[in-house]
Design goal:
heterodimer; A: 335 residues; mainly alpha; 13 helices; B: 284 residues
């Protein structure tokens, strides 16, 4: 019971508060402008000069008016904003009118989740192993080289790395497709050929995300292990002539992994942003590419929808990791 | 001077510093450019690199090399300004949270945790969409400056937390030093190095974000920055047309910029952390 009170309940409160904060920010941002956001939106659309269905424009202005509710007082606006959120209603999309925004998002969502989860888990595991090894066995030449590679890879932003990979693979080494999520015209079905095609298309975006993920995990893990290596219990284990491999695997790594789990929860927002950016580079049909199309078409409804859903998704994912954390750390279980 | 000599013993730091220096020279060269960066068709189009045009020319009829000097200058200016703004916020938040503790600390750290957890990229996109019509260097500086402080505020806070428990803090308080003086005279010595390393990392983040925003079409492409250059090259299909020099120049320079800034900050932070220094030298 103490576990529930000390660990579970604070986490749940934190979850609710952070989600509330994020969504409130989404509510506030369009209201920061001194001018009428709807007017400026319409002006932007007109400035683009493309022909649009007047019905679509009117409908969009209506939902915007309704969503922003600018005639009403601020608290009233805020309440109606939340009411819409709970019914998952973000209004119709503008560029593919009259499809509701939520439909577009739910179509793209699985792609992002698939890409994000696979690469995050994979790069967390690989990065921690290589980082741990290179932090523990400092003399190894091969690991030294790896350290240097990682050092050059880590500071590169997602977009630039993605673009570099596109250039490399598309023109110098054309073995992987670098655009889209599957071959256009292919039937979406649960067959081996389709799955193979999807994996083939996912390879480059996944590689791009994983390289950076591994680099980050490698470096932080290396630092943590270097700290752990100086701890007394490692020294005792050495004196007791425990095998080096056992010390590394059972004592050093296990303790060093805990801060890495916390680190993962803190950097998830950034990783998510990176996944969106990578999707844009590779035209991968997830939320990122949807966001790009929304930006190009000034589809503010869609952008707001994507942002809100992403905030909820990320905070929930973090909550899940936090709830699993006691499984790894007995100190919390028995507190 | 002594610090610099010790720092340069670290091969990584020297490498980074040299590259940063070269980039700075490039930025300064832009003042001597024979061409106006905003003007199109000043040179023949699509020429490969030659003696006359060291990095070739692009489809807009501009010289890639001189265009790049402007890009480096503008990107670096942008980065320094935005990073300076976010440093001010980070220092204030970190100091106030760390020093006052209690409920103030909780609230401030809750906000900065919120910033960390949130997909900041999406928030930036939402804001950038709104100011799209008025996007220029100043807007971008404010936008990125106001949003990039959360992690560094945390670092400064934890530093202040440990300083607050040190002996000299108690001595100062007991001998009646005003809080203001304590913070500005005593603590600033410990915090400045932190401000400096986070400044470099934040600059890299700003340049990267600018490139990303430019490539998705949310910045003003009239101003030559690294992002704008890349965006023009990509939207003119430089890759398909085989104009590799147009694309390679900004990509190469930006990678050099990110890596060198990172190496410099790595060198400095290891220099500041004596434990890491000892490990590097190998003394036990």
């Amino acid at each position: 019971m103490r576990f529930v009170r000390r660990y579970l309940i604070p986490r749940l409160i934190q979850y609710v508060l952070v989600t509330w904060l994020g969504i409130t920010v989404v509510f506030i941002i369009p209201r920061l402008l001194p001018s009428d956001p709807i007017e400026s939106m319409v002006a932007t659309l007109q400035a683009q000069g493309t022909f649009r269905d007047p019905e679509a424009v009117r409908e969009m202005v209506n939902t915007l008016r309704d969503m922003y509710g600018l005639e009403k007082s601020l608290p009233e606006q805020y309440i109606s904003f939340w009411r819409r959120l709970f019914s998952a209603d973000f209004g119709p999309s503008y560029f593919s009118f009259p499809t509701p925004v939520i439909n577009l998002i739910s179509r793209s969502f699985p792609w992002t989740v698939g890409l994000l989860l696979t690469t995050t888990v994979l790069s967390w595991i690989i990065g921690n192993i290589t980082g741990g090894l290179s932090g523990y066995f400092t003399g190894n030449g091969l690991l030294r080289i790896l350290d240097w590679v990682v050092m050059f890879l880590r500071p590169i932003p997602y977009y630039v790395l993605g673009l570099t990979l596109v250039i490399l693979f598309a023109y110098l080494l054309p073995i992987f497709p670098f655009e889209g999520g599957y071959t256009i015209g292919m039937k979406i079905a649960f067959t081996w050929t389709f799955i193979k095609d999807v994996l083939n298309h996912a390879f480059l975006p996944a590689l791009s995300l994983s390289l950076l993920g591994v680099a980050v995990n490698h470096q932080t893990m290396r630092l943590i292990i270097q700290g752990v290596k100086e701890e007394d219990y490692i020294r005792y284990a050495k004196i007791a002539s425990v095998k080096e491999r056992a010390i590394f695997g059972r004592y050093a790594m296990r303790n060093a992994l805990l801060p890495q789990i916390t680190g993962l929860t803190l950097s998830l927002g950034q990783i998510f942003g990176g996944a969106l950016i990578t999707e844009i580079v590779f035209s991968y049909p997830g939320l990122g590419f949807l966001l790009y199309r929304a930006i190009v078409n000034s589809d503010y409804n869609l952008i707001m929808g994507i942002t809100t859903i992403s905030i909820v998704a990320i905070t929930t994912l973090i909550l899940l990791i936090d709830l699993l954390y006691p499984l790894f750390d007995p100190r919390i279980r028995y507190r | 001077m002594k610090t610099l000599r010790e720092l340069s013993r670290d091969g990584r730091f020297s490498l980074g510093a040299v590259v940063v220096l070269v980039l700075l020279i490039l930025a300064i060269l832009s003042f001597f450019s024979p061409y106006d960066p905003t003007e199109w068709r000043v040179v023949p189009r699509d020429l490969p690199p030659s003696w006359e045009h060291p990095l070739g020319t692009d489809s807009k009829g501009q010289d890639v090399f001189w265009q790049m000097t402007f890009a480096v200058r503008n990107s670096l200016t942008l980065a320094v300004l935005a990073a300076a703004i976010s440093r001010v916020i980070a220092v204030v938040v970190g100091l106030v949270a760390g020093y006052s503790g209690g409920i103030v600390d909780r609230v401030l750290m809750f906000i900065s945790d919120g910033f960390l957890v949130m997909p900041l990229f999406l928030i930036i996109v939402m804001l950038a969409m709104l100011v799209r019509e008025h996007m220029n260097t100043a807007t971008l500086v404010i936008l990125l400056g106001v949003l990039g402080w959360a992690w560094d505020a945390r670092l400064i806070r934890s530093q202040v937390l440990s300083l607050r428990e040190r002996e000299f803090t108690y001595t100062a308080i007991l001998s009646g030093t005003p809080t203001r003086k304590l913070i500005f005279k005593e603590y600033s010595l410990f915090i400045m190095p932190l401000v400096f390393t986070t400044l470099i990392n934040n600059m890299a983040w700003v340049v990267g974000m600018e490139i990303t925003l430019a490539l998705i079409g949310l910045t003003n492409l009239e101003i030559p920055t690294l992002g704008a250059m890349l965006r023009w090259a990509v939207s003119y299909q430089a890759m398909l047309l085989g104009l590799w020099w147009w694309l390679l120049a900004p990509i190469g320079i930006s990678i050099a910029l990110f890596v060198s800034l990172y190496l410099v900050s790595l060198g400095i932070s290891e220099y500041l952390d004596p434990r890491a220094r000892i490990q590097r030298v190998g003394a036990r």
